[in-house]
Amino acid sequence: MPTTALLGPAEIRELAERAGVRPTKTLGQNFVLDAGTVRKIVRQADVTAGERVVEVGPGLGSLTLGLLEADADVVAVEIDPVLARLLPSTVARHVDGLTVTEVDGHAVLRDADGRDRLTVVISDALDVHELPGPAPVALVANLPYNVSVPVLLTFLERFDSLERALVMVQAEVADRLAAPPGSRTYGVPSAKAAWYTHARRTATVGRTVFWPVPNVDSALVRLDRREPPATTASRQEVFAVVDAAFAQRRKMLRPALATLAGSADAAEQALRAAGVDPQARGERVDIDGFARIAEQLAAAGVLDRPTRTSTGRPGRVDP
């Protein structure tokens, strides 16, 4: 497979200057300068030729080119319209034989055989409910720091074709996503990610590979799709229990679930029926345990009421 000339520090800064782009904290933009890091991400994602990969937040195209180098077909979701419109021309200069066209309102780079190698979707990733072209089998991304967990969980929910994900996130977030029950960092992201996947932290990424240099370390997390727990409770019902259990950390489950269950006694009854100690804390319960609790509360008819999530928004159970 031919090696693609990936973006280096000088070209990234030149591209940004030409487009009048300055990375913003609002959008969580930190561009990867190092080609070795890009290839490590692609390698750890086990990207193979011909796979359809979705990338969220392609930015100036560092990782996009790495995915194309592995002969994957990429659908890139970019919220910044300036960056999204710059990406096709950048890729066309680095990958021979691609022509830029438009299909259903999306910029598409197509090779001589008619294969769509890159499709650019201009959208907030959290608003994406469907993607053009074949269903993606992998999510590979340097996720914007400020929305990494919501984006990851939303895509796992909406696109069940995703068999795996390899994402770069803040090191602290990586620890939370991969944390097992009972660990110091286990919480809402850990439990919700476990509904969909087996997650593990695979590598630490130094700060100097980014522009601008962030004030936190980053890490790679690999998530492999698993079957959700066998339960009659819905995902929304289980996640409502997870949110309530961690709304006040270190609180025992009996009082933590009292509002959701209608009373502390009702919460205790459901917990005992689910085989969970009412004096345990949420940090000790795995996703299967939360599913059993939700099943008991749903059977009692108490999960039909509007819920208030850990983000404080009533009437919605966040992914």
Automatic annotation (TrEMBL):
One of its GO terms (cellular component) is cytosol. Keywords: Cytoplasm, Methyltransferase, RNA-binding, rRNA processing, S-adenosyl-L-methionine, Transferase. It comes from the Bacteria. Its main location: cytoplasm. It is an enzyme of class 2 (transferase). InterPro entries: KsgA/Erm, rRNA_Ade_diMease-like_C, rRNA_Ade_Mease_Trfase_CS, rRNA_Ade_methylase_Trfase_N, rRNA_adenine_dimethylase, SAM-dependent_MTases_sf. SMART domains: rADc (SM00650). This is Ribosomal RNA small subunit methyltransferase A. It comes from Cellulomonas chitinilytica. The gene is rsmA.
